[in-house]
């Protein structure tokens, strides 16, 4: 059985030849495919079809892929992969900062692209082995509560004091993993392996971008008892001060 069987994908690109090529490849993998050639059409198709994953070209005339990404992240945690120009670090980083889960550089091999999409879907579905909460925090399996912070992996919700926030899947999974191992330092490479999984194709800068986004959201409320701490030249840790 194909990994993509029955899964819905929205492909957005202003090049009709690329759209047709990708549509054929993903349909071969038994995805249900919808397409859009511009940003406005992409948002309309998304509302109509509620896809499981979005493949989004960033550089489009009119409403750009960046604009579409911003709009989608206001209301949805759907898996989003962005298409970027090869070697353009700015595109990759900005796309990740806006909420993309992964990126693929043009030109690309369609088979690799399908593999990347399947990898993201596996991570979002939680098919990779979940991290068990530490024994000294005997909460429910998918809920961690420490001081002012509650992380609910089952509902993909995070609450700091009384402020509840929606996080994209990878941000929440990264936070859950760090909170599950308080006061332990992890390198970027370890976090990529543990949170993104063995099949992740990206680079360690991805971790930095997700940490930056997490901090910006969590810092909306004071949290004197804990912080996500940078350990220079090593990585990151969830520092618990209580």
Number of helices: 8
**Secondary-structure element order, N to C:** EHEHEHEHEHEEEEHEHHEE
Please count the beta strands (DSSP E, at least 2 residues each).
12
Terminus-to-terminus distance: 49 Å
| Main beta sheet | 5 strands, parallel
Low-confidence blocks of residues:
127-140
Please tell me how large the radius of gyration is.
Answer: 18 Å
Name a few traits of the molecule.
single chain, about 240 residues, alpha/beta, 5-stranded parallel beta sheet, 4-stranded antiparallel beta sheet, 12 strands, about 25% strand, elongated
Structure, described:
The chain has 242 residues and is an alpha/beta fold. The protein is built from 8 helices and 12 strands. The protein has helices spanning 16-28, 39-49, 65-75, 89-98, 110-125, 169-180, 188-196, 205-218; strands at 8-12, 32-36, 53-57, 79-85, 102-106, 143-146, 149-152, 157-160, 163-166, 186-187, 226-231, 235-240. The strands form 3 sheets. It has a 5-stranded parallel beta sheet, with helices on both faces. Strands 6-7-8-9 form a 4-stranded antiparallel beta sheet, with helices on one face. Strands 10-12-11 form a 3-stranded antiparallel beta sheet. Helix 4 (89-98) runs parallel beside helix 8 and helix 6 (169-180) packs across helix 7. The chain is elongated, with a radius of gyration of 18 Å.
